[in-house]
Amino acid sequence: MKTLMANLTRLLWRSPSVIITLVAVLVAMGFFTRLSYQQFLFLQAQNLSSLSVFNEVIMPLAGLTLISQLLVGIIASVQLMPRLVQLGQSFLIYQAGIPPLQSYLILVFPIIIISFIPWLFFLLISIHIDFASQLDTLRLLVAAIGLISVGLVGVMVVVCCNFVASRVLTGLLLSTILVATLLSFDSMNALLWSQSYWRGLLSPFYRFREGIVVVADLIALSGWLVFLFSLGFLLLHRRLTCNKNKPLSILFIGVFLVATAGLYQGQWDLTNDKRNSLDSILLTKLEQQDQPLVITAVINEETNRDEILRGFDVVKRFYDKSEISFRARQSLGPEFQYQGEYIQFQLGEMYQAIAYPLEYNVKASFEMAISQMLRRKSQWITFVEGHGEASPIAKNTSDLGELHNTIKMMGWPVAAQNLTTTPVISDNTGLLVIASSKQSWQKQEEDLVLDYLKNGGNLLLMVDPDSVMPPRLEETIGISRIPGTLVDWSGYQGGTPHPAIVIVNQLTDHPTVNKLNNLLAFPWASALEVVELKVNPNVEYTSILRTPQGVWTEFNVESEQLAFNQEQGELQGSFDIALARVDQSNQQKVVVVGDSHFASDSAVNNYANKQFALNLISWLTNLPIDEQQVAQNRDSSLRPSRLGHFVFNWGYGLLLPSLLLLLWFWRKRRRFNA
Amino acid sequence: MQPKNSVECLSVSELVFREKNKLIIDNLSMTVDRGQKVALVGLNGAGKSTLIAILTGLIKPQDGRVAINGRSAQDLDFKRNLGVQYANTQAITNLSASEYLYLCAQTKFAENKSVDNAIENVVSLWRLENILHRPMSALSQGNLQKLIISQAFLGAPEFLVLDEPTQALDPVEQQRFIDNIKRLSDSQTCIFSSHHINETVEAADRVLMLHNGQLVADIDLFETDECWLMTKESVQELEAFFSESEQQEMRFVACYSGQRSQLYKVTTADAQSMQDLKNYCDKNTAVVRFCASPKESLLPIFSALANGDL
What pTM was estimated for this model as a whole? Predict the structure, then answer.
């Protein structure tokens, strides 16, 4: 049987139409890869933040691979049974001295083998891309398995058609029309009746491609395979009187599985970044709202709408009360048309809009938008400005632009507020941030902040050695600076660019630092101490970070010869650099960090500084950080070697298909010469 | 050489096959004994190819039964012992002649049989050496036909069913075909259809003549006490001519009733009775044709069917 199967496969290999189709689809896939690759490099050069090699290159290539598999399947399939019938050679199968099941298998397997060559090509390209980027391997594996399963079902549809056809042309037409009808119906079903239990080929394929394994899809695909496999047997041997009860029973099992697949619940998101799952905290909050989430996308292009639908699909799968509608820009009033394309989220009275094209991947963008919408009501982060503080909006290296962008991206609404011009701290302020005031405060400003604290508001206070600390605020908090700038000589000897950069490598058990797995760097920081004038039993002070031993409080940090000078009153030892104050009576949290530079644009990306800043905000606002939201796509860049670059450009589209064609010609010549 | 093996191996009873409301096989019954070489003869559209397709299990009849050694035509054991060649079989373009033989052998045999030996045998039997490595598509029509017939002989099957095997064969190859059929052993049964009467007479032991899906004549070519008569008279009119003692010696079997005349098989072991019958036929204008032996009867019956004299 194996020899016979191999011979029939060889027969297909020799068919010019099969080889021409194969070469054509490989050329198409190769040049498609080249185009996607070049487009990706172009986008990469523009530093777009939401780039993903998987989304830009692998996903479209997977779609093309599925079509290629079906195309090769059709051409290979008509080369066997319809051609044998047309040539009067069908007796080779019908009068074969082997059992009907075996004769069926020897016909089906060569077709499957040939039709999976595009899949192998896809795998080759994907593995190559994986070397040049950091693809999500598990997602790639799921996509590849999905491609096999869906492709197999598609090829079996084609095979069944060709067991009915008695002419090559009939087989071609019949299988092309049926496959096209099936795929069109599937697309239409997804658009019009998304709630139906129908599981065709395309929707499971899309989900596999996204890295989701849905139980209903697995059952439906198994059902399809069982059904088509039995149907193929019955069609091939329809004229024979072999036992057909068993295949008929199996066929009905397949029909049952396909029909009931939609009833089975359960799915696994097998991606590294859980891109297909809605954040559980966000989901809990959504469910608490118990209101429909209405998404209106003002987007014109159909392909862009598909992207939005993918995001909606994730939301819908987890939060059933979700609706989506699309509108064209032209349908808006003239006053809105200039705004460009956008997506609006509505939950009861709350609204949130995000611009299109999205800055991040669609699922993350949706989560951020919903999260922001929910938080807007109660959890604003307000940066005080007006006294030379580090600004979240300004672009200087000492400002907090990058931190601001990150926390905004994570869904916190952020505001910068001048307390003189807007003399009110709103009730929905979840956290007030004072990032190193350089000028003194007016009394009414100080009163506003003190009232805010009195009412249990949370505060993040960053103070540099040269900061102005409003005295009544300092007194209320009970934390003061020790004069001088901290100098870490051992850190400097260890490689820091300046002795005034303190490296903290011993972390406490405080929730803001206990999970950090890197050092922290504090440039030009001041030491802190608790100075509690009135002891309050409800208030607890905790050290978040301490400097290593040997650090001293330098009074003349600009000097070229830095040295500890005890006589001038400088202190040496280990100092608190970040302190937390928790008032148990009203759950108020205050953190004072003896440095604002650590979170500035010039230093926030050093070591674990950014994570520490985010952890502080998270702890102070009582909202756990969803780390996935912060995570960027790992496969955001593509950096092939010189050879890899050449192969992407010419190897897949030209060299490999040409090689295949040459090999075919060479073998043909050799055969004839022999 | 006529095999005298009376073990029945093929039985066809009341076979009916229609296609698009047209009756192709009309209530046909027959039996074939093991070792017989049977020729199916008939005009175009007589139903020979359809009967062959039914006998080999390629199509199912609407009514009737085919039993080969008591089994169905779909039986795997039968298929393993069946060599079949259909008319109008074309070349598989991407195969050489030897690859084609290998493909046929592999689909036909159970695993244990030696494919190489079987191929060697048919190559030698059909003198295929010169064309063995040529692509099928490059073979002449005659060579292609020879190759396709030869695959039916792979593994010396018990049943050989050939549909117009000598079509496109040159006289040399036609003779080779006859020789190869004659060489078949007593345990090998062969049924073949043909338009060539000479070749049929040489190769077959028995001829089944079909017309419009009906069996017109079942002619045993080696039967010496048999003659055939086409006449417009009925059996009673025929018998009235002969004396009672002659009637005892002769047996008239009406085989086929045509629009113009009827076909009778006359069996008699008595030479005098045969001579009287011949004299009667010479004088009687109602008699269309008298054939003194089965071999002589083939062409006249065939012509009568073609010309509408029956």
Answer: 0.70
CB atoms within 10 A of CB A646: 12
Q: What is the pLDDT of residue A483?
A: 93
Residue A465 contacts residue A487 (beta carbons within 8 Å)? no
d(C-alpha A126, C-alpha A143), whole Å:
11
User: How many beta-carbon contacts under 8 Å exist across A and B?
Assistant: 80
Instruction: Give the domain CATH number at A610.
Output: 3.40.50.880
Answer yes or no: do A408 and A261 share one domain.
no
The fraction of chain A above a pLDDT of 70, given in percent, is 94
DSSP B263: E
**Which pLDDT does position A27 carry in this prediction?**
96
Q: How many CB atoms lie within 10 A of CB B259?
A: 7
Extended beta strands in A395-538, E state: 414-418, 429-435, 459-462, 479-482, 485-487, 501-504, 520-523, 527-530
What are the backbone dihedrals phi and psi of residue A10, each rounded to the nearest 5 degrees, phi first?
A: -65, -40
pLDDT (tens digit per residue) in B255-300: 888 778 888 888 877 777 778 788 878 777 777 777 778 888 888 8
Spell out which residues of chain A touch residue B83, defining contact as CB-CB under 8 Å: none
Same domain? A81 vs A47: yes
Q: Is residue A373 included in any domain, yes or no?
A: no
Report the gap between the CA of B72 and the closest CA in chain A (Å). Answer: 9
Q: Are A276 and A314 in contact (CB under 8 A)?
A: yes
Options 3.30.460.80, 3.40.1380.10, 3.40.50.300, 3.60.160.10; which CATH number does B8-216 get? 3.40.50.300
Same domain, A200 and A337: no
Q: Is the ipTM of this complex over 0.95?
A: no
What CATH topology corresponds to B224-307?
A: Alpha-Beta Plaits (3.30.70)
Query: Does B58 lie at the interface with A, CB-CB under 8 angstroms?
Result: yes
Range of the domain at A345: 280-352
Handedness of CA A589, A590, A596, A598 (dihedral sign): negative
Residues 6+ apart with CB under 8 A from B171: none
Is B88 touching A (CB cutoff 8 A)? yes
Boundaries of every domain in chain B? 8-216, 224-307
How far A237 CA sits from the closest chain B CA (Å)? 10
Helix (H, G, I), strand (E, B) or coil at A274: coil
Q: What is the CATH number of the domain that holds A311?
A: 3.40.30
Any B CB within 8 A of A240 CB: yes
Higher model confidence: residue A49 or residue A247? A247
Could you tell me if A89 and A138 lie in one domain? yes
Any chain B CB within 8 A of the CB of A238?
Answer: no
Question: Is residue A489 one of the residues assigned to a domain?
Answer: yes
pLDDT at position A338: 53
Measured in angstroms, the CA of A152 and the nearest CA of chain B are apart by 25
pLDDT category at A333 given cuts 50, 70, 90 is: low
User: Using the beta-carbon criterion (under 8 Å), do B72 and A92 form an inter-chain contact?
Assistant: no
- Tell me what the mean pLDDT of segment A487-501 comes to: 88
